[in-house]
Amino acid sequence: MTTTNGTENKFEMASRPSTKRGRNMIAIASGKGGVGKTWFSITLSHALTRLKEKVLLFDADFGLANVDIQLGLMARYDLGSVLTHKITLNQAVIKLPSPLGFDVIAGRSGSGSLANMPFAYVQSLNNDLLSLSSNYSKVIVDLGAGVEKPVRETARSCGKILVLCTDEPTSLTDAYAFIKVLVLENRNIDIRIVINSANSIKEGEKTYETLRKACNGFLKISPPLAGIVRRDPRVREAIRHQTSLLVRYPNAEASEDVYNIAHSLI
Q1: CA within 20 to 30 Å of 8's CA: 40, 148, 176, 211, which one?
Q2: Rounded CA separation 234/260 (Å)
Q3: Whole-angstrom Cα distance, residue 82 to residue 90?
Q4: 203-260: pLDDT as tens digits
């Protein structure tokens, strides 16, 4: 495939799996949907910004992107515009004003074509993100659910991967499956666990231990606990109002928990 000026499309020039990683890039994964991954990505980005980090939040859920929806954004450009060569990745950056203050690159909600994009496109997009990451101290990458190749490749480009799960058996099973696939591809990958919607810190620790034991027993690894976020009804209210929990309820238990995780990543 060539462009209008006869030059080779850069997306088709990427033929081998990416081996470069952004040390300041942190992937947020879940293995399944519905565990609060996007909410956590937004709240973590906001917490890091309040801790004086320069943050970019990249919505890498290529099929069911919703960072812009949860933030109430009307994005002029998104990843679809990048992939159709209308703009560069840098031009897709949305700078959020105070009180949020971090930058966002929106995905394209409900686009199955993005979820099934050619693998070379994913590689090229990751390379562009890696270059863009040099402008930030932290880049939060909100991955799509599942273990498909585009998700794994994007995760592999990040220096750290936070796997979010709850105490639901399906969440634990899918989180383990995600970890297993990544570890089989590269045992040196930095994976950490975040337990979300825990009834208490103690219950969260029990959930983490269940997942850790499975990883240790079958994979011979013990991913460390990055943190526990307690269940808080104000989280849903913040989502409903399309704003960050740290703006609406800065003293909520869940806000405190995400702040603690943010501190550990600096």
Answers
A1: 148
A2: 18
A3: 9
A4: 999 999 999 999 999 999 999 999 999 999 999 999 999 999 999 999 999 999 999 9
